[in-house]
Design brief:
610 residues, Heat Shock Protein 90, 3 domains, alpha+beta, five-stranded antiparallel β-sheet, elongated, Beta-Lactamase
Length: 610
Amino acid sequence: MKFKYTGYKKWLKPRGIQSTIMLAFSVVSVSIMLVLGIVIYIKFSSLSRQEIVQNTQNLMEQTGEHLEDYLLSMRQVSDAVYYNVIKENDFFSQDNTIRQGIKLIYEANRSNLHSIAVYNNYGSLMAAEPVASQKEDPDITKQNWFKQAVGEMENMHFSTPHIQNLFSDAAKRYYWVISLSRVVELTDKGVPTSGVLLVDMDYSGIARMMKKINNQNNGQYYYLCDSNGQIIYHMKQVQIHNGIASENNAGVAEYRDGVYDEYFEGEYRKLVIKTISYTGWKLVGIIPYSAFTHGMFNIRYFIIILILLMAMMLAVIQRFISDKISSPILKLNASVMEYEAGEKPEIYIGGSQEIRHLGYSIQRSYERIDTLMQNIVMEQNERRKSELDALQSQINPHFLYNALDSITWMIEGERNDDAVFMISELAKLFRISLSKGRTVISLRDELQHAKSYMNIQKIRYKNCFSVNFDIDSSIYSYCSVKLVLQPILENAINYGINGMDDCGEIAVSGHKKDDNIILSVTDNGIGIPEDEAELILTDSDRVHKHGSGVGLVNVNNRIQILFGKEYGLSIESELDEGTTVSICIPAVPYTEENRKNLEKGNVHSKEIQG
């Protein structure tokens, strides 16, 4: 029966409703896109600002450390001159020693220094390096660095940049310096007195550090001022001095370390401030708000592209909305496809009367199919169980007769202890053999059954062979098919080592490998010819030699019926060397639930492993 989908859709399509839905959806979608675009832009803008501020702080932290190292080296020069030279010598009697000591320190640090000088408390020059003539009446006591040192005797004082004007220079060159001054104790003719030690640092070293970080092209810059707001370095220092440009350096003096917002000369900007140790100087980073938008052009393009992509998606969605009228058929088709894919959804029943009737019909058909499938599965499970029971029932009854005969002659021979042991092992053997009719037992019980069987056989064969069990105890708690080891052990006795004189050896081993359990039975018997070994597990009609009972084909079939074709037996044999028969089964933990599921065949063994 064919269903003409297109005509039916046209007949049902309400033009007015469809247009209204599309219009409303378009308005909502455009609004969402605009809001989303604005939110994304604001979010990226905020992240960009945070990143710029963080990078500025990191750069200022590094620069601050370099400045602190530079200033610390100057403090160390001052300390070396004072404690190693001035304090240890007398200016009257050891003037030459003092000059030599100052010279050595100056030569060691001349790349960062301009001069070192010592003055007494009256402003008279006591020593200087490099050697130069002092200008006439420089009025030392009125110099700022001298007054700062005398005013606060316990501290070192760093001046703002100024031209060094104390000594004459034949080349008439003038140098910008920063003066480090401190009050020191002098000894002159054995009499202690006070004086001032002056260390003039080369200003170009600080200028180079500041120029290195002032390389931004987005309007961002850095400057250095002292604790009073006096500018030490600024890119526009000359313009500021001449009144052409301005800076809020006086206001910065009131700020502590941190990030601040500021409105200066009609522009909003952020200030990042870091105080330099030893001096109280402030390193100031200026970030104009225009710098935050400098790198946002790519973000704007990204958002525009994103909105265009969303507009394309909107067109696709609008097309979907235009076909919304066909949803009952689409839903019915989807539920049928899910059912065909192996799931069991509720068949969709809705829409018009014809579609509802079709849904009811499909639902009833699938219910009848499910009922038939369940009956087939039940029949297959019963058949599977019957096959297992039939294979298990093939165990050789002669073993019981032989065991009972052995017990009889033991009792007749008054070997009561041996008879009791034989009966005990036989009881264990048949308790596990019966297992309340179960097909799946634990590996612990299967191995106990094998040990009881071999104990009985050793007595029957008068200990003409030895048995060794090497089992990893960690596998005891996994599932096994019942009675898979006994036929293999019987085969090893009858076919492998029967007829050997007290030198037969049988080894049983068991361990876990990956997700599988491996059990092996190895004998040192006569071995199996290669052509015959290949047919043992494939030719079920062959005659088993030496009364091997159920045989290896039986065991292999029982394992594969329960666990799957990928599991079963494998045989390795070499003539006159012996034979190894290995069992591979999945490592399924032995629980009551797993046992029932395996015996019923409700799930595959791989689904319940672990």
